[in-house]
Amino acid sequence: GENVEQHPSTLSVQEGDSAVIKCTYSDSASNYFPWYKQELGKRPQLIIDIRSNVGEKKDQRIAVTLNKTAKHFSLHITETQPEDSAVYFCAASLRSTASKLTFGTGTRLQVTL
Amino acid sequence: DSGVTQTPKHLITATGQRVTLRCSPRSGDLSVYWYQQSLDQGLQFLIQYYNGEERAKGNILERFSAQQFPDLHSELNLSSLELGDSALYFCASSRLDRNTEAFFGQGTRLTVV
Question: In this predicted model, what pLDDT tens digit does every residue of B32-58 receive, in sequence order?
């Protein structure tokens, strides 16, 4: 089955700096790659997603890039703010949907003042 | 608020018991997904229903079962509970089965003692 690896497991940045989280996946047939943000004790919230027919997608301070050849995708957060502090999960799916999403192990991002 | 409602929020029960977790999807969403989040296994896909029918199955134990009713709400039944079943159980919903993002509910925290 699909396997998703996520790095780093923890990331500390200063407010205003950029943060980058990287994920690799194993199944070349995967075609949907969402990113979720989860604050402590709360639900995962979809922040951005990308499908395999595009290489990059941006939404304000958040961007995701996808390299299908290398089977990796990355989340970029610019001008980080304290409220960006959370655990971020990448995921991959074969069905271009949330069905059978395989999640990475999460990255705990801490934005310090 | 994602619009996905899960009840109860917390549940404490003894080993060997059976519990039912309930999920009401967002208005108009036909697909419901169940995920388990534990410290050692991370976020794992359990099962998906679409318009009342089982659509996809993940790492769901035989002791667990689910269904989606005509009004589209879903229930996850966990039986013969073990200590290792203690986890956060999330329900997510999406409009369709494909090419659509999923939104998570707040989760049910199950503690088996």
Answer: 999 999 987 788 999 999 999 999 898
CB A23 within 8 A of CB A4: yes
- Contact assignment for A106 to B42 by CB distance below 8 Å: yes
The pLDDT of residue A100 is 79
- Angle (CA) A14-A6-A106 rounded to 5° is 70
Percentages helix, strand, coil for chain A (3-state, rounded to 5) are 5, 55, 40
- Kindly report, residue by residue over A3-61, the tens digit of the pLDDT: 999 999 999 999 999 999 999 999 999 989 999 999 988 899 999 999 888 899 999 99
Closest residue in B to A43 (Cα–Cα): B106
Please check whether residue A54 touches B, CB under 8 A.
Answer: no
At which residue do the structure tokens 């998570």 appear? B104
Q: Check CB contact under 8 Å for A96 and B99.
A: yes
Q: What does the H/E/C string look like for chain B?
A: CCCCEEECCEEEECCCCCEEEEEECCCCCCEEEEEEEECCCEEEEEEEEECCEEEEECCCCCCEEEEECCCCCEEEEECCCCHHHCEEEEEEEECCCCCECCEECCCEEEEEC
